[in-house]
Design a protein that fits this description.
- The protein is built from ten helices and no strands.
- By secondary structure, it is mainly alpha-helical.
- The protein folds into two domains: 81 residues, Orthogonal Bundle (Cytochrome Bc1 Complex, Chain D, domain 2); 80 residues, Cytochrome c-like domain (Cytochrome Bc1 Complex, Chain D, domain 2).
- Helix 6 packs across helix 10.
């Protein structure tokens, strides 16, 4: 059994849904697949919002939209609770000190912590950036900046305005190495 809390809070199909999530996002919520975000330790409200928007076809991939189509709110809540309680993984990749330092400077200059919290663990509807997959973060920032992120947040597009795209790599490297 994957988790008693999840199964007790949701429908009979819950364990199958959880297995479907784990196939891409990892059984522990820490993705090992390039381009697929880790969801362990994400704020519950962020996960609930993202899952509802994906179910409604506003965000997410076609695969995720298909998996979530018709999923009742109680199961969405149970999924969000489950993954929000999992421990985020620790960064395994080596750190490029110059890129890390540049990312820290860019994050401070642009006040990224004002929404994502001082340790970038996220809060409420703002996602956790700490320990997230580097390539995922870099691509997400680029999509926000170019207004290509499905269901994108105009606040993020504005926050990234004026930051050179070269600095997205530094930001992604910095955030991905945080615990």
């Amino acid at each position: 059994m994957l988790t008693a809390l999840f199964v007790s809070c949701a429908s009979a199909q819950s364990e199958e849904r959880l297995k479907a999530c784990a196939a891409c996002h990892g059984a522990d919520g820490n993705s090992t697949i390039a381009g697929t975000p880790s969801i362990a330790g994400q704020p519950r409200i962020f996960l609930e919002n993202y899952l509802v928007m994906t179910r409604e076809g506003i965000r997410g991939t076609d695969v995720m939209q298909g998996l979530l189509k018709g999923v009742p709110d109680r199961d969405i809540v149970a999924l969000a609770v489950h993954f929000s309680k999992l421990k985020p993984g620790t960064p395994k990749e080596e750190t490029d000190e110059n890129l890390f330092r540049r990312g820290r400077e860019v994050a401070a200059k642009n006040r990224c912590a004002s929404c994502h919290e001082k340790n970038f663990q996220g809060r409420e509807q703002m996602p956790r950036l700490a320990g997230q997959r580097e390539e995922f973060l870099a691509e997400a920032m680029l999509q926000y900046r170019q207004n290509r992120r499905p269901g994108g947040d105009t606040l993020m597009a504005a926050a990234l305005y004026g930051i050179p795209e070269a600095d997205f790599k530094a930001l992604a490297h910095y955030f991905s190495r945080l615990k």
